[in-house]
Amino acid sequence: MRLEGKKALITGAAQGIGKAIAFGMAKEGADIGIADVNIESAEKTAQEIRESGRKSISIKLDVSKQSDVSSAFETFMKEFGVLDILVNNAGITKDNVLLRMKEEDWDAVLNINLKGSFLCSKEAVKIMAKRRSGKIISISSVVAFMGNPGQANYSASKAGLIGLTKTIAKEYASRGIRANAVAPGFIKTAMTDVLSDTVREEMKKAIPLGQFGTSEDVTNAVIFLASKEADYITGQVIHVNGGMYM
Ligand code: NAP
Q: Three-state SS for 239?
């Protein structure tokens, strides 16, 4: 088991990619904090992980609120005592073309996707720096590198995450903290289920491997970065996109 005894906090882990990462890490021996705005589904996910034999708690967290973030990390530390891994996974979309994009939709996406990761990373670094060890993994997106019509707010937030990741990597390497990002392409989750069949078919044409990825494809990259095998890797991005962006 590659994460035996590790303690991981995953944001937005009630469903989708975050949930898959939680299950994948638990299977590799980690205990997991499931942090999400939706506390009912977060508790369901935590319960399933406990039934699989690992320790897990649900934590109510809106990543865009400093007070929530502080108390979530406090709750996690009370339960687990150490923090080895933070996965910044919580994210939303509020799509529209630039001229129709409302300021509030720009703010909502930037606040959750980028500011949320800043706030959580800051709490994590405070804890990890003391032990001179820790891994921070942020879930970016292929659109950070390619742009995407209708997603000015989302692509900007996901590109911002890359700058945040590289800066944390440089600032805290001397404290034993590794910061990396995973940039998924189109992955089958609730976020992409809302797309019409026509849009989905068009998208598949742009993917050399000819299909959408799965949450498990993303999980595999995250587990690798969290494991000892990736200890000499920091400030990097792993692209999980079927060749859509090279
Ligand atoms: P998802 O199914 O919508 O899951 C996101 C989770 O985050 C949900 O449980 C959601 O709760 C939670 N969340 C939303 N706002 C939050 C907040 N303020 N604080 C804490 N949790 C919050 O999405 P997904 O597809 O699994 O995406 C996970 C991550 O991968 C996101 O960062 C996304 O941008 C990224 N990503 C996804 C794809 C893709 O194709 N699916 C591709 C590239 C990158 P509610 O459901 O209650 O809102």
A: strand
